[in-house]
Amino acid sequence: MNSVTGLHISHHPASERLLDIKIKNDYLDKVKDLFDQNELLDIEYKPFLRFHISDIFNKVFDGKIKDIINKTLQDRDQGAFIVGPEHMDSNKYDTDFLVKLSTALTHLVGTPNFDAMAGKFYARFEVKHTDNSDSYLRKAYKKLDLHTDGTYVKEKTDWLLMMKMKEENANGGESVLLHLDDWEDLDTFTKDPVAKENFIWGSPKSKNIDYKIEHPVFSKDKEGRPIISYIDQFPEPTSLEQGLFLNKLSNSLENSINHIAFKLPPGYSIFSNNHFLLHGRRAFQSSPNMSRELLRQRGVFYSSKL
Predict the structure, then answer these.
(1) Where are the beta strands (DSSP E) in 39-185?
(2) Do the Cβ atoms of 15 and 260 come closer than 8 Å?
(3) Does residue 75 fall inside a structural domain?
(4) Which of 150, 180, 183, 228 is surrounded by the most beta carbons within 10 Å?
(5) For residues 25 and 156, what is the distance between their CA atoms, to the nearest angstrom?
(6) How far is it, in rounded angstroms, from Cα 115 to Cα 209?
(7) Could you tell me if residue 219 is inside a domain?
(8) β-bridge partners, 261
(9) DSSP SS3 for 207
(10) Domain range spanning residue 295?
(11) Rounded to an integer, what distance in angstroms lies between the CA atom of residue 135 and that of residue 90?
(12) What residues contact 75, with CB distance under 8 A and at least 6 apart?
């Protein structure tokens, strides 16, 4: 593992593919002191400040964290890491700071897409005991099946950062990843002629997207390796063959024995390559007082091998 002052970097216990990056608290405190010089509202209104705090963050770690996370995200053998405080203190590291921290991380690798659901470059949303939304995203007691992000928007989506900002009275709900190269049926599905057909992709009203797009489930990167753009709720099959293909695909992905599953602590983020890593979440156990708040940023690399 790379040795970087201020960081503990190791393989995650759940998988050799997943890096676990813990930020030492004395270094994170330095970051917070520097970030506190800019209010969150200013960072939202002035895009250049997002690059400023990203540069500050990188310099605290001797300019080395940028290279580590870029290499990890674009390395086909890895493609994901989790990152957060060595010891989480929610009173000290409040939600405003966590938004800034996520922004510093993303702007080391690229620029976030505009998130129409939230109307800004990031989205925050709650998951509670009760829910009347039109998406699986907020339904705590339903499993969130494996998928990639950005399937229904015109913008390219290279990467995804999901941060757990708060969590109370929550049992279950483990994060799940599946690396495309670990999926047992990859070859079978990518060779299916239906996989190369254009599918229509829409979205629920809560996403605030008023158009639909078309693209296949599978395509290839610059080196000819398969990549995927898929979510179970949003495709609109136009033939029996497409409908049956999607049903088989969903069953195969969910039944893979090579899932990477782990509990993500509050204050931590999953940062993953959106082209060859699918993500999901197991269902929570019922709890009337269950509450959690998540943050999402997704976007494009400054430069990409894909």
Answers:
(1) 80-85, 110-112, 123-128, 144-147, 159-168, 175-179
(2) yes
(3) yes
(4) 228
(5) 35
(6) 10
(7) no
(8) 176
(9) helix
(10) 7-181+255-301
(11) 28
(12) none
Does 36 reside within a domain? Answer: yes
Q: What stretches of the chain show up as alpha helix (H) in DSSP?
A: 25-35, 40-45, 47-60, 65-74, 95-106, 186-190, 240-254
Rounded Cα–Cα distance for residues 93 and 35 (Å): 11
48 Cβ contact list (under 8 Å, min separation 6): none
Do 306 and 275 contact (CB within 8 A), yes or no? yes
Task: Using 50 as the pLDDT threshold, list the residues of the chain that sit under it.
Answer: none
Which has the closest alpha carbon to 234: 150, 136, 152? 152
Judge if pTM exceeds 0.90: yes
Interatomic CA distance for residues 67 and 191, integer angstroms: 35
* In a domain? residue 193: no
Q: Which amino acid is at 245?
A: F
All residues at 6 or more sequence positions from 128 whose CB lies less than 8 Å from its CB, including other chains: 138, 140, 290, 291, 292
Q: Is 175 exposed, middle or buried (0-12, 13-18, 19+ CB in 10 A)?
A: buried
What CATH code is carried by the domain that includes residue 40? 3.60.130.10
Average per-residue pLDDT for the chain: 93
Chain-centroid distance, C-alpha 209: 20
Look at residues 263, 299, 291 and name the one whose alpha carbon lies nearest to residue 125: 291
Question: Bridge-partner residues for 161, per DSSP?
Answer: 271, 297
Query: CA distances (Å), 41 to each of 46, 120, 227, in order?
Result: 8, 11, 37
Q: Which two tokens stand for residue 216?
A: 């296949």
pLDDT digits (tens, 9 = 90+) for 105-142: 999 999 999 988 888 999 998 877 676 665 666 666 78
Decide if 156 contacts 150 (C-beta within 8 A): yes
Q: What is the rounded radius of gyration, in angstroms, for the C-alpha atoms of the chain?
A: 19
Supply angle C-alpha 305, 22, 175, rounded to 5. 70
Domain count of the fold of the chain = 1
